[in-house]
Amino acid sequence: MTENRVSLLPAAALFAALVLSACAAAPPASGSRPGTHDAAGMDSAMSGAHHDAGTLAAEVALAQVGQPYRYGGAAPGGFDCSGLVQYAYRRAGLALPRTTGALWSHSDTVSRTELRPGDLLFFSIAGKMQHVGMYLGSGRFVHAPSTGRTVTVESLASGYYATALLRAGRPPQGASPW
Questions:
Q1: pLDDT at residue number 174
Q2: Can you give the pLDDT at residue 44?
Q3: Those residues with Cβ within 8 angstroms of residue 87's Cβ, 6 or more apart along the chain or in another chain
Q4: Beta-strand (E) ranges in 84-171?
Q5: Is 37 a catalytic residue?
Q6: Does residue 51 have an active-site annotation?
Q7: How many CA atoms lie less than 13 Å away from 73 in the CB half-sphere?
Q8: Alpha carbon distance 124, 116 (integer Å)
């Protein structure tokens, strides 16, 4: 019996490390506060008649604010960072890859001055690209941050996110092989 318990310890430790690492790691709680959104929840520029997949995906993602973080989650009831992106785009009619790395590869680089609602924001955690969020407009984005937190809206101007942003990307708006 003792031998079985000892042999399970490395596996349990690995599992705990994976769960706690979430989409990599949580940003420091002291430097980031959940943002706010207006009644419509979106940038006023998004309220026009033209709704592309990115705008619709941003609206879907924003509607998930308050849902818990869940490692591997990709549905209401629990999301991880890439699961939130994939779910929102799927609901907007565009299939995207599931992992942060595949989302990076599948999106076209966009300059910070050209950001549109629905664009993907890739962040460095511990020196590696490991986190993704979705741009909403007005310098705000929605994401599923880490274990113990909920889907939230943050500002790109906050110290942590301003320095951790690696690049923005825009998924292709046409048919997807995913």
A1: 63
A2: 41
A3: 60, 61, 64, 74, 75, 79
A4: 108-110, 120-125, 128-137, 140-143, 152-155, 165-170
A5: no
A6: no
A7: 23
A8: 21
Which tokens belong to 28?
Answer: 């420091």
Structure confidence at residue 23 (pLDDT): 57
CA atoms within a 13 Å half-sphere pointing along the CA-CB vector of 20:
6
Percent with pLDDT over 90 in the chain: 63
Can 106 be counted among the known catalytic residues?
no
User: Of 37, 51, 106, 143, which residue is the catalytic one?
Assistant: 143
pTM here? 0.74
Q: Could you tell me the maximum CA-CA distance found in the chain, to the nearest angstrom?
A: 66
CB atoms within 10 A of CB 170: 17
| pLDDT above 70 coverage of the chain, percent | 69
